[in-house]
Amino acid sequence: MATRTARPEPRSRSRAPSRPREAGTAVNGALTELRIRGLGAIDDVTLDLGPGLTVVTGETGAGKTMVVTGLTLLFGGRADPGRVRAGGRAGVEGRLVLPAESPVWARAADAGAEPDDDGSLILARTVSAEGRSRAHLGGRSVPVGVVAELAEDLLAVHGQTDQLRLTRPAEQRRALDRYAGPEHLALVEEHRAAHATWRQLADDLDRRRSQVRELTQAADVLRHGLEEISALGPEPGEDEELDTQARRLGDADALRTVADTARLALVGDVTGDLGGGELPQDASTALSTAERALAGSDDPTLVLLAQDLADAVAVVSDVAVQLASYVADLDADPARLAEVLDRRAAITALVRKYAEPGEGLAGVLAWAADAQARLSQLDVSDEALEALEAQRDAAREQLAALSARVTAGRRAAAEGFAAEVGAELAGLAMKNAQVSFHIDSDPDQPGPEGADEVALLLSPHPGAPARPVHKGASGGELSRVMLAIEVVFAGADPVPVMVFDEVDAGVGGQAAGEIGRRLARLAREHQVVVVTHLAQVAAFADTHLVVDKSPDSAQGVTATDIRAVRDEDRVRELARMLSGLADSDTGQAHARELIAVAAEGRG
Q1: Residue 508: helix, strand or coil by DSSP?
Q2: Which SS3 state, helix, strand or coil, does residue 121 take?
Q3: Residues 417, 443: contact at Cβ < 8 Å?
Q4: Residue 17 — very low, low, confident or very high, per pLDDT cuts 50/70/90?
Q5: Quick one: where's region Disordered (predicted)?
Q6: What is the C-alpha to C-alpha distance for residues 451 and 449, in angstroms, rounded to an integer?
Q7: What are phi and psi of 58, to 5 degrees?
Q8: DSSP 6-20
Q9: Beta strand 527-531 with 53-58: parallel, antiparallel or unpaired?
Q10: Where are the alpha helices (H) located in 427-524, listed in sequence order?
């Protein structure tokens, strides 16, 4: 039975209705519902998020960024108790709709999560004012790290202060690898495995060379134990067999009497070695007499019973033969008994020395097998070191060949990647910007993902030196570079939800419209949420949310509400963004024109 996260009815809420899009939806999944409680100025709001492009607008300081903060918190981001209302508790809940083939389902199942009744996946996160944080996934309490791991396949947040994927050289290298294609990515994985093999061999060789004395001593201990066990030569199950033999040898006379008495009762003294004399009728004779009596009858039932008695006679005779063999094998020789007891004592000594309690001789043999395997790792002889060195060198040669191929693939992809990103930037108020990759290869120092250090360089305008993008770009430029990269990767990125926080800072006019157009293009394959202050961007929205701030007289604090706007309400909001006056006729006319242009551009 699926467990559903409890959802008490909020005191005030605004809903942005989910609406089907005419041109594409997020094929990898979508966040259909988001509830935020007690976070910053937000008291309690629930957002029904639609597919495609959702924009969040509102006056400066109204709390637009709290939507992004809530999303980040929901997906395992760092909890900031300073965002929680004094003495209260902040909470964020979300409902994810994912395709059946999404890898998120397998990871969620490993964490014990279950889908909700409608097949969606419920996430929840709470943070107290004291900083304590809890996460829930599919009705189960889970470590926050589990949700953060899932977020890698679910959410990408891009903001002016959160540009981690562009500022880290390793992430820039992975972006280039991704652009190079699946065959190149498979080659990188092969390189990673080869690097692990080489490092293991190299570390093993270094360890043996630097710890010759310690390893030699450890090997001597193992050899001594193996020699001691080998000298005795115990066989599997021998300890139990010796116990059985010792009991038989110690009780030979009593056992012989018991076996002979049983044989006499079954077949009598047929050999004359049981004392002769007048003996009572034995079982075999009695059964044979009964069988002959019944066999002479014409009654079918008695004839069948006679056959059963004949089978019984055969069984009795067979048991008698086995008893005779048992008696013949009994040995009352004291010397043999002493020999058995001595070997059993020797094996017992090995068990005490090399086996865990309760394991017996099987534990000794297991220790010997393990010791033999460990000896191969402790061998510091010249021959062993030379063989290991040869393996290491062969692995290094294989790694070098793979590194060269990985480097060649990156260099081949770098020019095309940079050109495509530059073409996108041309329409984002960075017409003269030049993007390039600097690939510095050191074949002598290969890492798991190759021998290359990759840096994404940006020259914002002609004459400006190309510098690493996180150093040579302003916050707004960095956001636009990220947007350009995401547009290049549109349709290939498995992350279903993308969030952009103020990516249009410092942009206006035609460039703002181009940002909106590109975000709408991304939204054909992803669910895109954008916090913006530009009407030119907001005009492209499929869902438009407005953040309003108003005094809460009951609590004496300022509260934030979020509402969805459509039709004339949306025109008024765009007019406010354009001119500062929601009721301006000129502003509203301009807003309607923007909506029409955006609809045409989106189509």
Answers
A1: coil
A2: strand
A3: no
A4: very low
A5: 1-25
A6: 7
A7: 155, 170
A8: --PPPSS--------
A9: parallel
A10: 469-472, 475-488, 509-522
d(CA 73, CA 236): 59
Cα–Cα distance, 377 to 393 (Å, whole number): 18
Given a contact cutoff of 8 angstroms between Cβ atoms, the answer to whether 244 and 252 are in contact is: no
User: Alpha-carbon distance 156 to 499, whole Å?
Assistant: 6
Q: What is the pLDDT of residues 494-535, one digit of tens each?
A: 688 888 887 666 666 777 888 888 888 888 888 999 988 889
DSSP output for 385-438? HHHHHHHHHHHHHHHHHHHHHHHHHHHHHHHHHHHHHHHHHHTTT-TT-EEEEE
Tokens of 288: 């044979």
Is 51 strand, coil or helix?
coil
How many C-beta neighbours within 10 Å does residue 79 have? Answer: 21
- Helix or strand holding residue 525 (H, E): none
* Distance (Å) of CA 137 to CA 101, 268, 558, 586: 18, 79, 32, 49
Q: Which residue type does 499 have?
A: V
What does residue 454 show for φ and ψ, rounded to 5 degrees? -110, 130
3-state secondary structure of 500: strand
- Which two three-digit tokens encode residue 374? 């460990």
pTM: 0.58
Enclosing H/E stretch for 37: strand 30-39
As a whole number of angstroms, the distance between CA 203 and CA 386 comes to 14
Residue type (1 letter), 485: I
Q: How far apart are the first and last CA of the chain?
A: 43
Half-sphere exposure of 594 (CA within 13 A, CB side): 29
Cα angle: 97, vertex 17, 150; to 5 degrees = 25
How do residues 161-175 score in pLDDT, each as one tens digit?
545 566 778 888 988
Residue ranges with strand state E in 166-259: none
Query: Locate tokens 């900031």: which residue?
Result: 80
Pick from 531, 527, 567: nearest CA to 546: 531
Largest CA distance in the chain: 136
Give the whole-angstrom CA distance, residue 525 versus residue 53. 10
Tokens 């599997």 belong to: 236
User: Tokens 């097998």 — which residue?
Assistant: 369
Instruction: Report the relative pairing of strands 30-39 and 42-48 from DSSP bridges.
Output: antiparallel
Q: Please name which of 261, 251, 263 lies closest in space to residue 337, comparing C-alpha atoms.
A: 251
Q: Tokens 């395992």 correspond to what residue?
A: 76
pLDDT value of position 160: 56
CB count within 10 Å of CB 325 equals 10
Nearest Cα to Cα of residue 58 among 565, 397, 551, 450: 565
Q: Is the dihedral of CA 330, 332, 334, 338 positive or negative?
A: positive
d(Cα 532, Cα 502) in Å, to the nearest integer? 5
Q: Which residues contact 186 (CB under 8 A, 6 or more apart)?
A: none
**8 A C-beta contact, residue 260 and residue 282:** no
Tokens linked to 590: 């301009």
- Write down the residue that tokens 């955006």 correspond to: 598
What does the pLDDT read at residue 272?
54
Cα–Cα distance measured from residue 587 to residue 573, given in angstroms and rounded to the nearest whole number: 10
